[in-house]
Amino acid sequence: MNTTDYTHAFPPTEQLLEAVIAVGQGYSESKWVAEQLVQVAAERTSVRTTLVRIGQLSGGVSGAWNSSEWLPAMIAASSVLGSLPGGHGPVAWLPVPTAASAIVDLIAAPHRIIHLRHPHPVAWSDMMAHFSQVLHLPVVDYLTWISDLSTIFERVDGPQTKHAKTGLSLLDFFQSSCTSGDAAGAPVTENNGLSILMDMGESSMCCSTLRNPGLEQLGVEDVRKWVGYWRRIGALPSL
User: Fold this and answer.
1) Beta pairing class for 195-196 and 122-123
2) Which helix (DSSP H) or strand (DSSP E) does residue 230 occupy?
3) What span is annotated as the signal peptide, if there is one (predicted)?
4) pLDDT at residue 146, as a whole number
5) Whole-angstrom Cα distance, residue 112 to residue 106?
6) What would the mean pLDDT of 32-49 be, rounded to a whole number?
7) Cα 205 from chain centroid?
8) Residue 198: what are its φ and ψ, rounded to 5°?
9) Residue 69 phi, psi dihedral angles, 5° rounding
10) φ and ψ at 85, to 5 degrees?
């Protein structure tokens, strides 16, 4: 089983990776183990397998986005704190309908490992500016936002407690961005250092959906849909 030792400052390509890339979070570790099991099955049987590494999916046509995921939880906490987290780097969230179409394209692809994310990322700062416009909240320094989140229960009570708990439950994950750094040899990240950015070279070549010049970048109208959905289901305070 050939693997790539991903320890350099470039996005991981569509190959099996050493375990070091997944160590530290149970979620990513379980994904790595699952990939190894699929690969073993492919090597020992006649089963034809395809591994699809999906980045962050965003809401569908109606804006529906699972409110327990990290970004909705971050926005819920922000609504209580009265501020949004600033940051840097790309955001490559892929709308669910686009991801579904891309997977159909890739079913017959010759590659056994596929990466799926938005081929045209936008800046984290731009996405937070969109949320700021829709929610009427200022954007603050990320470390300030983290510090405020860690003491969130000192400032809220009543109905706001639910939204505070959603974000506070992921405090350790949000703090991991503060230690990702920009050191030489550090992974290329997205989502303000919370995720590793994946290379899309081979995947883009065999996917017409991702190559479509009409595929739009994420923008403020997407944010309006997501926020509208979260408000409808009670994951964000109503206006």
Assistant:
1) unpaired
2) helix 220-232
3) none
4) 96
5) 10
6) 84
7) 22
8) -95, 145
9) -75, 165
10) -80, 125
Closest CA to 122 of 99, 95, 97: 95
For residue 73, count other CB atoms closer than 10 A to its CB. Answer: 22
pLDDT at 28 over 80: no
Q: Number of C-alpha atoms within 13 angstroms, CB side, residue 136? A: 1
| Predicted pLDDT at 3 | 36
Q: What is the pLDDT of residue 200?
A: 80
Give the dihedral of Cα atoms 20, 22, 25, 30; nearest 10 deg: -130
- Cα gap 116→99, rounded to integer Å: 7
Query: Can you give the length of the chain in residues?
Result: 239
- For residues 73 and 194, is the Cβ–Cβ distance under 8 A? no
pLDDT tens-digit profile of 136-146?
Answer: 999 999 999 99
Reported as a single tens digit per residue, the pLDDT across 182-194 is 554 556 788 998 8
Q: Which two tokens stand for residue 102?
A: 């891309």
Joined tokens for residue 97: 């309908």
The least confident of 15-29, 31-45, 218-232 is: 15-29
**pTM (predicted TM-score):** 0.85
Please say whether the beta carbons of 39 and 26 come within 8 A: no
Residue 170 amino acid letter? L
d(CA 138, CA 83): 5
Cβ pair 54, 116 in contact under 8 A: yes
Residue 228 one-letter amino acid: G
Residue that has been written with the tokens 């920009």 in this structure: 182
Domain annotation for the chain: domains and CATH numbers: 19-232 (3.40.50.720)
